[in-house]
Amino acid sequence: MIAILDYDAGNLKSVEKALRFLGEEGVITRDRQKVREADGLILPGVGSFGAAMEQLKKYEIDKMLREAATEKPILGICLGLQLLFDGSEEANGVEGLHLLKGSILKIPDRDGLKIPHIGWNSLAFPERGRLFAGIEEEPYVYFVHSYYLRAEEEAIVTATTEYGVTIHASVEQGNLFACQFHPEKSSGVGLQILSNFAKLSGGNG
Fold first, then answer.
1. What is the DSSP pairing of strand 26-29 with strand 2-5?
2. How many domains does the chain have?
């Protein structure tokens, strides 16, 4: 069973639906016991960094994530990726979960680029991670974001994309995995990514 962590963020149902399509059991929950029993955790998210951290603390999901980080696979999606890091320019002074090292920066204004960045972009694999097993080179995935990750250690970066700057689009370190894009909205490529994560969590994959 994969626990989809519920802190009143959006896109929970779409993640649950994608897992169900793959034949995996995904449960939307913030119950500590269910989180402990889960084989893997998914931290989705849309919205603002500061409000999200407030909600994670309100439901003590921040503690659950720290407890689980050394024991089972965790996948952060979009804002969920950003929350795993130290902090964000979107909410100066608000600390992230500090599970990974890096900064979340505003996508710079550039001529011809719309912010937020919404749409399909191709990925490059500087270091192909386990989430991308069986996926062709330069796959297209779906993004919706105004802020982007600059990881402190480039060795953890498994996928990048270009949108005015080089965006660290996916990372992997130990049990921690994260995607700035939305695999649940990225068609067959996204389903393969979620399937790979489910397999890492001991599911049907």
1. parallel
2. 1
